[in-house]
What we know:
- The protein is α+β, with helices and mostly antiparallel strands and 90 residues long.
- The chain contains two helices and five strands, in the order ββββαβα.
- It has one domain: Gcn5-related N-acetyltransferase (GNAT) (Aminopeptidase), CATH 3.40.630.
- It is globular, with a radius of gyration of 12 Å.
Amino acid sequence: MSIEVHDAGDHYEASLDGQPVGFAYYRAEPGRVVFTHTEVRAEAEGQGVGSALIRWALSDVRGRGLSVVPLCPFVRGFISRHPEYQDLVA
């Protein structure tokens, strides 16, 4: 099992063994990224796709020097469980 993530312009996309299965939609604003919705296809649930997707996305946002507005409950919950990302919250 290989999870790969990339930024597709208006969402981050996770692929599992080459198939797109996870999506974290966002809106880019000056100085920040607003996460609006995250979904993982049913066939990929329970395989760590959502966590890998958000971890990669937040690391990408950090690397670009931006902050995060976690409107999406999944992203908000991930950040609350992983204090190393709490400094990103706008």
